[in-house]
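Re: Re: ligand-bound prediction request (bumping)

Still looking for help on this. To restate: I need the protein modeled with dinuclear copper ion bound, output as structure tokens. Inputs repeated here so nobody has to scroll up.
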Amino acid sequence: MHKYEKIWLTFGTSALVIFLVILGISAVHQGHSPAASGIETINPEHVRDDARFKEPGLYEAESDEYDYELYFVASAFQYEPREVEIPKGSRVRIHVTTPDVIHGFEIAHTNVNMMVEPGLISKYTANFNKEGEFLIICNEYCGVGHTDMTSLIKVTG
Ligand code: CUA
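Reply:
Sorry for the wait, this slipped through. Here it is.
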């Protein structure tokens, strides 16, 4: 092979490799970009392996922005926890995900209303300033047990 041909061949191959690496990097980057836009992804098959959703419930927030973080796992046909007590006046960051199908998460008589999709963590910040019991209901049809799918938030003074 001619010397220059060899140089060009090497150059061409290197350029191709670099190009593929750049493509790979941008693909990886795109895979993570939903987090940057505020939507967090989660592998629906491993919801329970995630420390936050292993024992869903109310936890003191680490950030000053909220008093509590509240984790829920929605699945056919229940929410976990089934009942949760929140001290009146709390600012709560709610996180909900599901391992199976699309569910809803609506706290009756409040503005809290979101869709829960496998693979995503839906979030909502709510202030619980009113004492009482608030029913969480599923407002996306998810199967035979859809109407029984509820949980209860008790806001205590
Ligand atoms: Cu879950 Cu409807």
